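[Solved] Which block belongs to which protein?

Original post:
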Amino acid sequence: MKFIHLDEVDSTNAYIMRNVADLESPVMIIAHTQTAGQGQRGNSWEAEPGKNLTFSIFFRPVGLPPMSQFSMSEAVALAVVDFLSLHGIDAKVKWPNDIYVGDRKICGILIRHSVLGSGISYSVIGVGVDVNQTQFFSDAPNPVSMKQLTGETYDLSALEKEMAEIMEHRLGGIVDTESRDKLHGEFMKNLWRGDGELHPFTDTATGENFMARIDAIAPHGPMSLRLNDGSLRTYAFKEVSFLMIND
């Protein structure tokens, strides 16, 4: 994987979108400072300059049909889990693709696809991992960094190389149906709150709070929740949210 390092940029995702015609796949765009880093649901991503691993990958997933695009989300999330495991951190994937350690968020992921005809022309994979930052000032309720968890200060340039290698390996595992099925099995095993226990959720359309256990995640992304009375509800992205224990 090739690298492009930027001192300052609005966001690495936006940089890719402005330069699609000139980029080769795969390439990792790494920023020292992002002035408008983006998160899920239009949120900003807090990252102290020079302290965290903030990057985007431009990737052309040859042969990946649009209906299987969630496989890329699974691959990227598991790559971050793999990366953190190398540093002794036991992380899980909070559906659809945040990365949590316990009840604290260590990484956010934002993926956008450009679909052309029957295939995905290219994907923009944005990732922000909290590494050496120890103070957070945004209204994010539960951030945590690698340094807070381990007490170590990390060399970001070394982490970049590790992450790129793991990402490239994981993205190579979405090329065929058999590989994607295996990937989905791994995703389910690494699911945050996928322990079969009841957990609190909110239906974002109605505001209803309810208890349920994760029953399944469909290969194309929706999550099915089993309530205590045995009834089943299925939600697409943004239709349901997890409640933290102290909410």
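(Second protein starts here: sequence line, then its structure tokens.)
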Amino acid sequence: MLVNMKSLITGASSGIGRDMARELSRKGYDLVLVARDEKKLNELSIELKQKYKINIQVILMDLSIEENCKELHKKVSDIDILINNAGFGDCGNFTKTDLNKELKMIKTNITAYHILTKLYLIDMKAKNKGNILNVASIAGFMPGPLMATYYSTKAYIVRLSEAIREELKKEKSNVHISILCPGPIKTNFNNVANVRFHMREAESPVVARYAIKKLLKNKFYIIPGIDVKMGIFFSHFVPSSLIAKITYMVQKKKIEK
């Protein structure tokens, strides 16, 4: 078991965030769990404290609010692992989806990641140690008609993280950044995004276990599943216009009537 190692996880109340919290607690990490659902956070905290005897701090916070992200960094300033996981999606024709929901999505999926990555990266570089995991998606590697805003937010996270990785490599830093790029996962994401996936959905605990294993080995691209790996690989060789056509047809079948 590890001693005095701490991880901060956003979007920790359910889905893959909750399961990554379970994986890290099993390895002895103290946790800072951040989300908006007080009941679920407290239930998870009680579960993990009883099972693993670790220290857990629960913080109720809406990270779509910029000042909250800065306040979180002030509250929790010394961590070993940052997992940016909070986020959601939406599905539909771009002219028909709700603008306010999309703006909140951008603030949650991009702005919060950007602020927390920057602030905690500065801290980690000063100590010359630490890990950041940004939860992206296979969506970050391709255009996403009918989920245009969500795909675009994940593309931002992929490119931002790739750029930071190169900067850290040139500096020969002992700080590492990673991106988790799964395909569909069985979580509450589908309900929020108003979609049903017709391709195989991965089990959240399996993805979480794989993600933490690779994160602790300082892997940059963390891509669970051979089908997802193949999809990302071929996206580099197929014209974007063709990918957009294929994605449109797939997304159209997912929209709940």
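Accepted answer:
You had them paired correctly. Confirming on the second one: The beta strands are 6-10, 30-35, 56-60, 81-84, 130-135, 175-180, 221-222.
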